[in-house]
Amino acid sequence: MTRPDPHPGPPPHVLREYALIADGERGALVGPQGDIAWLCAPRWDSGAVFASLIGGPGHYTLTPRARFVWGGFYEPGTLIWRNRWVTADGVIECREALAFPGDPGRAVLLRRVRAVEGDARVTVALEPYAEYGARPPRDVRHERPGVWTGRSGPLHWRWTGAADARPGGDGRRTTGLTAELTVPAGGHHDLVLELSADRPGREPVDADRAWHATQDAWARAAQPLPDCLAPDDTRHAHTVLRGLTSASGGMVAAATTSLPERAEAGRNYDYRYVWMRDQCYAGQAAAAAGAHRLTDDAVRFVAARLHEDGPRLAPAYTVTGGPVPDQKTLPLPGYPGGGDRIGNHVNRQFQLDAFGEALLLFAAAARAGRLGPDGRRAADIAVAAVEARHHEPDAGIWELDARAWTHSRLICAAGLRAMAASVPCPQAASWAGLADTLTARTAATSTHPTGRWQRAPDDPGLDAALLLPAVRGGVGARDPRTVRTLDAYRAELTHDHYAYRFRHDERPLAEAEGAFLFCGHLMALAEHQQGNEREAVRWFERNRAACGPPGLFTEEYDIGQRQLRGNLPQAFVHALMLETSVRLAAPAPSEGEET
């Protein structure tokens, strides 16, 4: 007999139904039942206080008491989400946000129930369990009318607006608070939850002021974008990237951990860290769009890591610039089909291509007139690292076994060429010469007998990553190897304008893994570079539609079931979507011009 769960919470939903609210320092996933199923506090990589997404007991749910159908939308240019429920009696909305910009030491979660049509009758349940559900609430007190306080592990919390809440328990201890609210037609009611490592201030957060400040901050963060193919979606991609970016400049790769890329395949990882490569993609995309703050953030964070670690640059860091902890498992059931892991084994890898991407980022910043002396010195460090380490095997873009990956060496050549073209200086000729040397050595070992590029000297296969060096100017767009690689990739690793990374084995592509949305947008850029405008737009439109109602992308897309797979939201997919939308609205680059 199965033992009942002592902490029953909302069941998990398909990923396409979750919305993200974020403030730069942390993010929460909100489900269609008004369930905040994931939130780490106080920082992105801290223990989760709401972990029902991966089988923990913690959640914060606000849901109609009547039967309903669900919908929702973001307020334009913000990560303020509105859950919307149509019931038999009327329409209820809940406005959801993390107060923006975020305070690194304190999360402020704002929820405003609106009775749009008829009275709004909702049930609210707050169960804050720190450290992924291991630390239940304690010291729960009704401090004053409408104000509850308590502790959960290392966190202090204060909940305002639930005057009639009742403590609930499992017979041994308090597990949380529940309340029933009725909001008269046309009215609204605010709930404010504060979470911090220190005791909250003397006075609770004023909801009206917090909402106004958050609206104003998002308005200031909004970025006017140039002509692009999909203005609203492009602005939303920029907003998501902004919400994932800390005051340190570091942008986490995703807000979550352990959401499976494929059921029961063991491919579930912790992406709540700053990947150097992903940060560079976002900075380059922002530069293409003229979104200079995100470019500046990327340059600042990447340059700082190069100054600190030089040729020993790690593939990923925490948002504070610290090391990524070792990978370990949690004693939780996990999201269905996955298992729970925190930390990441990437901390043990060397990834050569990160230096090339850093140089591409610095070159993009220089073209925009935004590469200062600190970034310029960091570029010299990256060049020296490429020169010293390009002969070493590395884990590559997909973080596999160390070998001489073709993409890693050619993307370093692309970065060197971009810097030589963008930063006039005495070293430019030597940078271009090193790029020529890398390209020639790679061509000697990694040109396939058919004339295309192959993955590595000892791997004749195709790989989506082999398209990127030409898109970035590492090799010419009309170079026969570029054209033959694109033709072979299109024929062998794509289906119906969805793209795959590489062939794992003899199984059909869709049985080995999901389509990679990053690769789909890369195909759009590659076709655009070749002047195939109609095909480029078809690739863009196909892949930008691979999301749910909140417009968030994961890394992979199951084309058979039309479902999202992997951690949510995946920043580098939003970055490539942003860049592709901007670049495809402009004429194709001429030969020798990097994208």
Number of strands: 25
> What would you call the shape?
elongated
The largest β sheet comes out as: 8 strands, antiparallel
User: What is the typical, i.e. mean, pLDDT?
Assistant: 95
Number of helices: 15
Assess the beta-strand content as a share of residues: 15-25%
What is the CA-based Rg, rounded?
Answer: 24 Å
Class of secondary structure makeup: alpha+beta
Euclidean distance between termini CA atoms? 60 Å
> Any low-confidence stretches, pLDDT <50, length ≥5?
1-7
**Helix share bin:** 25-40%
Overview of the structural elements:
The protein is 32% helix and 22% strand. The chain contains 15 helices and 25 strands. Strand 6 and strand 7 (81-87) form a beta hairpin. Helix 5 (292-309) crosses helix 7 (373-389) and helix 13 runs parallel beside helix 15.
SSE blueprint:
Elements: E1 19-22, E2 27-30, E3 35-40, E4 48-50, E5 59-64, E6 68-74, E7 81-87, E8 91-98, E9 106-117, E10 120-127, H1 130-133, E11 137-144, E12 147-152, E13 155-160, E14 166-169, E15 174-183, E16 188-196, H2 207-221, H3 231-243, E17 274-275, H4 276-289, H5 292-309, E18 316-317, E19 328-329, E20 341-342, H6 353-367, H7 373-389, H8 406-422, H9 428-446, H10 468-471, H11 480-492, E21 494-495, E22 498-499, H12 509-512, E23 515-516, H13 517-529, H14 533-544, E24 556-558, E25 563-565, H15 571-583
Antiparallel strand pairs: 1-2, 2-3, 3-4, 3-5, 5-10, 6-7, 7-8, 8-9, 9-16, 10-15, 11-12, 12-13, 13-16, 14-15, 17-18, 19-20, 21-22, 23-24, 24-25
